[in-house]
Amino acid sequence: MEFIATVVILTCTYALLAAGIVILYKAGRVVNFAHGEIAIVGGYVFYSSGLMVGDSLWFAILGAVAFSVVMGAFIYAAMMRRVVGEPFYVAILITVGIAIVLKSAIIVVWRAEQVTIDVGVAPAVRLAGGATLSYMDLASIVLTVVFFLALYLFFTFTRSGVQFRGTAENPLLASQRGVNVNFVLSRAWIIAVSAATLSGVLYGGRAFLGTASVTIGLAGLTAALVGGLDSLRGAVVGAFIVALAQYLTVRLIDSVLSEALPFLILLVVMSIRPWGLFGTVEELDRV
Amino acid sequence: MARAGTNLRTSYIEANEVLRRPYQKLLIAFIVAFALLLPAGSSDYFLHLINSCFLAGMGALGLMILTGFCGQISLGHAAFLAIGAFTTVILTVHLKMPFIIVVPVAAVSGAVIGFIVGLPSLRFRGVYLAISTLAMHYAIIFLCTTYQARFAASASAGITIADPVIGPFRLRGEFAWYYVLLTLLTVVTVGCVNLVRTRPGRAWMAIRDRDIAAEALGINLTRYKLAAFMLSATLASVSGSLAAYHSNVVTVEGYTLDLAVIYVAMIIVGGMGSILGALLVATFITLLPYGIDWTFEFLPRVWRFGSTVFGVQVGAVGVCIILFLLLEPKGLAEIWRRIETYFDRWPFRYRPLDTSRR
User: Fold this and answer.
1) Pick from B135, B312, B320: which is nearest to A104 by CB?
2) CA-CA distance, B181 to B68, in Å (whole number)?
3) Model-level pTM greater than 0.90?
C-alpha cells in the first residue's frame, strides 16, 4: 500500500513536469531543458513569498502564480520569440542557458540552502495496509488530477483551446486565420511554467528543494519522451513508468543507479520505439 | 602575386590557402613567438591557468569537429573527458602502465566510446540525438561513479595519479607541462585545420548543411558521422587523460552535465565552424571564473559572500550562451569576419559578395 502511494505521488510530480514539456514541444517544437530548474525555483519562490508575509499560504500561492506568469511571458517574449526560424539547436541551447542561470539564481538568491516546504497542515491520513498520507500528498494527487482535467477541458471546449491546437498544428495557417500566435505561445509558456512550479512546490513538500533536486527535470523529460513528446496522455503514462522504475531500483537494487535509470529507460525506448508510447510517428525527426 | 581581392579566389591554390590575408601570417608569427616566450615571465599559477586553457581547447576542438562541422549536437562531451580520465586511472593505478602507452590507449578507448555514442546519430537527428547523447552521458558517468565508489581510497577525495614519466624525464611542474601541452595542442590544431579543408571536412560540412543532399552526392553518412563522433571523443578523451595527469587527481564529480554544457557554450560563443573561435573561447570560458573572482575583489565586502561569487561564476556561462544565441548566433567568428570585411571594403560601406563563407 505504501508502495502504491509513493509511486502515485512521484507520478504526479513527474506528470506535471512532463505535461509542461509536452505543451511546449507541441506549441513551438522546443524541448525545454530548463524545466527542472524552473520547477525548483518556482518552489523556492513559493517558499520565500510565504515567509515574507508571516507564513501565509495565500501569499505563497500568489507569489508562485506571479512567478509563473512573469517567467513564462518573459522567456517567450525575450528569448523564444526571437529565435523562430533559427536552426533547431538555438532554442534548445537557450533553454540550457536558462537552466544554468536559474541554477545560479538558486545559489545567489537562496544561498543554495536545502529547504522543505511545510504548509502547516502536516497531520497524516491513515490508509488501509499501513500507508500514511500527509495532506501534502493528498494535495499533490488532487491538484494534479484537477490540473489535467482543467487542461483537458481547456483544450477541448474553449475557444482559446482550439486556437492552441490550431497553432500547434500549423502556426502559419493559424495566424492567417486571425489567431494571435504570439499570445497563444506566450500562454503556452505560462501554462508550462505554472505546471512546473506546482510540481516544484509539491516536490518541495515531500522531499527538499536544492541545487541537487533540479534533476527532476530530467526525469520529467524522460517521462515526456517515453510517453511521446507530443502526447499529453503519454506524459501521464510515461511519468508512471519512470516513477515505478525509479522506486523499484531504489528499493531493490541501488540508489546510485536510480539517478541514471531514467536515461537507461530512455535509451531502451529510443532504440525500440523512438516516438514514444503515444507519440505521432511522423513527428519524429528521423534520419 | 596579384590578387583579385581578399574575397575572390581565382585559382584552386588560392581557394585552399589556410592563411588568406597577409596580416594572418604576421599574427601567427606573433602568436608563436608570444607562446614560446610566455613562460619566461609568468608565475606558476598563471601557467597553471594557461595549461588548463590548453586542455580545454583540445576538448573544445573535438566538440567543434562534431557539432560545428558535422552538425551533430552532443551533450555527452563531459562523458568523453571522463572516459579519458578513468582509462588513465585504470591503466596507471592497476596496471602501472607508462604515460607513453596510457595516452594512446585513452585515445583508442575514447574512439570506441565515441563509436557507441555515435550509433544513435544514424537513426536520429536534432533534438532526439541531443537527448540520446544526454542519456549516454548518464550511463557512462554511472559506470565511472560505480568504479570510483569501489576502488577509490575515499569516495569523496577521488583517485590520485602519479606524475607521468617519459623515459628518463619526470613530467612535473607547470613549466614543463606548458611546452608539452603547447606542442600537442599545436599538432591537434594544425591537424584539425587541415582535416576540415580536405575531403572529410567537406563531407562533414555537407552533412551539417543538408544530410539528404550530402547522401545524394555520394557521401557515406554512416561512415562520416561515426568518424566525427570518434574523432571528437578521441580528442576529448586525450584531453581528459592529460588533465588527469596534470591535476594528479581524478574524481567523477568533475564530470557533470554542466561541464558538457560549458563545452557546448565554448563552440557557440566561438562560432559554429570556427577552429580559432573554439580555441579563443575555450580560453575565455576557462578563465571566466577566475576573472569573476578577481572582479569581486574590487566590490564592496558585503557582496563577496562566498556563495554569491560561486553563483555568479556558474551563471556567467549561461548568460554568455543566451546572449550570444540571441544577438550573435554565429558567434565570435562572425564578429571577426564583419570587422575584416569592413576593412576590406573601406571606404565603401556596401555589403560584399558573400564568398568568404566556407
Assistant:
1) B312
2) 23
3) no
